[in-house]
Amino acid sequence: MKKIILTGDRPTGKLHVGHYAGSLKQRVELQNSGEFEDIYIMIADAQALTDNFDNPEKVRSNISEVALDYMSCGLDPQKSNLFIQSYVSELTELTFYYMNLVTLSRLKRNPTVKAEIGLRGFNTSIPVGFFTYPISQTADITAFKATTVPVGDDQLPMIEQAREIVRSFNSTYDEVLVEPQALLPGNEACLRLPGIDGTAKMSKSLGNCIYLSDHPDDIRKKVMSMYTDPGHIRVDDPGKLEGNTVFTYLDAFCRDEHFERHLPEYANLEELKGHYTRGGLGDVKVKKFLYAVLMEELEPIQAKRHELEKDVPAVMEILHQGGIRARETAAKTLAEVKHAMKIDYFE
Ligand code: ATP
Ligand code: MG
Q1: Nearest Cα to 295, choosing from 192, 195, 210, 228?
Q2: Cα torsion 43, 148, 33, 331: sign
Q3: How far, in Å, CA of 139 to CA of 88, rounded?
């Protein structure tokens, strides 16, 4: 079977280091591995509108920001189709047919949707569109017959839902759809990078992010304000690693060679952790090191972004062309779906 990737991000803000660690970095590696026949990377504006329907300007203005982040991290429009979800109207049509295959109680059980409803304060007034976004996400994945969906672990319940819909469709109608698999980052700290405030997940909607395009001075301030161990008051106090955001970020980003360049008195992260837990190592020193590590990763990305920002219309045109190609594929799948459902009257 052909190996095909579909994944994407909501244009609710610029992309942050959580996206980079959890998905973007791996996408670029997969793109360059040459193992995949087709790669579709979608900016999910229609999904973003499900909880930002009253703020269309926010969604619109972040389309080019996300595209700039993609390309500055190394997504290459020659190798990956970059497109905007709403441009491919076939996705909406597929969503409507898939709705018949999902029960209300099944949607209510989705733990990610439950958590997001709480975070957005929707408890008593959940927009139906938001509640059903896992179904629309299934349409996005299956329209391209994606086999592989590189995501952070908050997306696992969505992929599970997609697999169930595929099985239900194929057994009710005909073997048209492909069951996708989630592909998580190999590094545990990258599965769900916490916010700088120590909350469970860095998220655009929570305002606890280090954005890929933040000015280095802002990144320094954010790193220096990061949540560590509240019990680690004096330098001599033994420090805790558990729940210590600075060390989680080091787990996600730091490699041995960073020590040679920025903190040569330690050979590796294990030694640094050892000193911290014994006591005698201050937070400021660890944070300065983290800042150096992050900037080493982000500097080339930011330089590329500054270049790309000079011609935003060219970036938008890339999304347009990617959308035209994405529509061709989605239209084929939709035709097969309608045939299987016996609603292809005039073919
Ligand atoms: P929003 O708050 O609008 O939902 P978000 O920050 O959660 O935004 P999404 O666009 O929903 O970002 O997520 C895009 C992709 O990035 C998904 O694959 C998701 O798993 C991954 N991702 C998002 N935040 C993190 C994080 N903190 N750590 C690891 N992966 C993440
Ligand atoms: Mg999200």
Answers
A1: 210
A2: negative
A3: 11
| Residue 9 CA, closest ligand 1 atom number | 10
Question: What Å distances lie between residue 11 and 50, 62, 268, 347, CA to CA?
Answer: 12, 5, 37, 37
- The whole-model pTM stands at 0.94
Half-sphere exposure of 101 (CA within 13 A, CB side): 24
C-alpha span between 13 and 194 (Å, rounded): 17
Partnered with residue 41 across adjacent β-strands are 7, 82
Residue 179: the pLDDT is: 98
Instruction: Give the three-state DSSP class for 150.
Output: strand
Q: How far is the CA of 301 from the centre of ligand 1 (A)?
A: 19
The residue type of 129 is G
Q: Whose CA is nearest to atom 23 of ligand 1?
A: 19
Judge if the beta carbon of residue 192 lies within 6 A of ligand 1: yes
Average pLDDT, the chain: 96
Residues, the chain, total?
347
Taking the centre of ligand 1 as the mean of its atom positions, its distance from the CA of residue 20, in whole angstroms, is 9
Q: What SS3 state is found at 274?
A: helix
Task: Determine the pLDDT at residue 199.
Answer: 87
**Tens digit of pLDDT for each residue in 267-325?**
999 999 999 999 999 999 999 999 999 999 999 999 999 999 999 999 999 999 999 99
Once rounded to an integer, what is the mean pLDDT over residues 224-234? 94
With a cut of 90, say whether residue 4 has pLDDT above it.
yes
341, exposed or middle or buried, with CB in 10 Å at 0-12, 13-18, 19+? middle
Ligand 1 atom at shortest distance from the alpha carbon of 10? 10
Measure 304 CA to ligand 1 centroid, in angstroms: 22
- Cβ–ligand 1 contact at 193 (below 6 Å): yes
Residue type, 13: G
pLDDT score at 99: 98
**Backbone torsions φ then ψ of 221, nearest 5 degrees:** -60, -45
**Is 75:116 a contact under the CB 8 Å cutoff?**
no
